[in-house]
Amino acid sequence: MAQTKNKIFDELFKALMRLSDIAVISFINALFDTTHPLDSKVTRQNTEFPKRGGGKLFSDMVITITSPDGRDARSYLIECQIDDDDTMAFRVFEYAFAFGKQDLQEKDGVLTLRFPQVRVIYLEPTSQTPDVQTLRLEFPDGSWDYQVKTVKVLDLSIRELMDRKLGLLLPFYVLKIRKRLRKAKSPAARKQLAEELKAIYGELAAAFKRGEAEGSITYRDREKLFEMTEQLHDRLYLGYTEFEEAHMLLDLTKIEKIDALYDELEAAREEKQEALRRAEAREREKQEMARRIRELEEQLSRKG
């Protein structure tokens, strides 16, 4: 994301990748369908690569995860985009090639260049955003397709992102209303979007808490996710009076209050379930008693 106007998203994504090693490993496992132990070593690699003839290439993030015993190390290159980019497969190939050639290995006269696994994350996907982007390499004796899978953040619900263990992307859910806000001309229309954003922030609070409970993030990660969400909110919506109440939900001093509300809600749900269980038990006892009475009546009738 080289454009100056999108620098905030670039910086935020890189900050997310600097959260705890547990959070990053959980995210990588989900993004690439891997099973790295949470006590693996995480190395955030240099993402500046020299170009032949001068200049540099800049990728968003390269993560290397090394197994606890140090015997296995795998690298992952992730690009984060706000807008569609038809050249993305070529750019990712270029970054991956530049990263791999830093560690060329020779054995028996054969040079080996290891590519990292790659993903492209689209923050504001459109109907044209593909699931896979392809760069076709044509050789004199045939061709080979270099394919790059994509993740389209806003095409997924908050629950779906959590179920897929991609909770580190949730601060970007602040973007959910951005395009519609540009078209909202009246205070009433903006107020409606502000109410939607408040509901989103409530869901995010519960999602961050869920991530901590499930062990995919730490408590400190949860605080940082709130901070990043607030940072992005300020960049996008500060100055709209209709969004002041939504901003209040992101005040870090209210995290524990938000937690208390969700704890209270969960306790109420459990109490309701327990009441239903008791009612069902009473109904079963009532039916059993009625059955027993019928049996006694039939026995008395036969004796009569």
Question: What are the main properties of this structure?
Answer:
304 residues; alpha+beta; six-stranded mixed β-sheet; two-stranded antiparallel sheet; 9 helices; 10 strands; extended; coiled coil
- Average pLDDT number: 87
| Percent in helix | 40-55%
Number of E-type strands: 10
Summarize the biggest pleated sheet: 6 strands, mixed
Uncertain segments: none
Helix and strand content put the structural class at alpha+beta
- How much beta, percentage-wise? 15-25%
Short description:
The chain has 304 residues and is of the alpha+beta class.
Structure explained in plain terms:
The chain is of the alpha+beta class and 304 residues long. It has a domain at 1-155. It is 49% helix and 18% strand. The chain has 9 helices and 10 strands. Strands 1-4-5-8-10-9 form a 6-stranded mixed β-sheet, with helices on both faces. A hairpin with a 5-residue loop joins β2 and β3. α6 (187-214) packs across α9 (255-303). It is extended, with a radius of gyration of 27 Å. The mean pLDDT is 87.
Topology:
Layout: H1 7-16, H2 21-32, E1 41-44, E2 48-50, E3 56-58, E4 61-66, E5 73-81, H3 88-100, E6 105-107, E7 110-112, E8 117-122, E9 132-139, E10 142-152, H4 158-163, H5 178-183, H6 187-214, H7 219-237, H8 244-248, H9 255-303
Parallel strand pairs: 5-8, 8-10
Antiparallel strand pairs: 1-4, 2-3, 4-5, 6-7, 9-10
Helix pairs in contact: 1-7, 6-7, 6-9
